[in-house]
Design goal:
By secondary structure, the protein is of the alpha/beta class. The strands form 2 sheets. The chain has a 5-stranded parallel sheet, with helices on both faces. The chain has a two-stranded antiparallel sheet with strand order 1-2. Helix 1 crosses helix 4.
Length: 146
Amino acid sequence: MGNRDLVPGISGWQLKSSPRRKPMPKDMWCFWRRTSFFIRFDIAEEFRRLGWRVIEAGNAEQAIDVLRSTARIDLVVTDVRMPGDRSGLDVARAVREERPGVKIVVMSGHLVPMEKHKHLIDLFVPKPTPSDQLAKQIKEFMHASG
């Protein structure tokens, strides 16, 4: 599906060829804990190849600032471990408070989600996960969650 297949609709983007299918989000907000800019860039570029707009934040404070802005956000992807004093779970809590309808994907190579985290996480992705597989998994999740 390319950008030429999407047209503006009343409640977002709609597919020209199949109006019954739920369109994929055109805005996607993602931020990564990885200290390596290149790893974050690689994952963000994979999402951009899907035609999504990506807003990146380097730490939880920046992410929460974006959350409080007027930017359109359909999905938040966060790692649990982030630079600074706050974690990706703090970001997830802020998403639930500030923008309850936004989907949250949490990644971690250290945390195994427990019952107390369920209300914060719509999809959990264990790390490491290659960026192309991550993008495919999130695309399928967003399409299924409608």
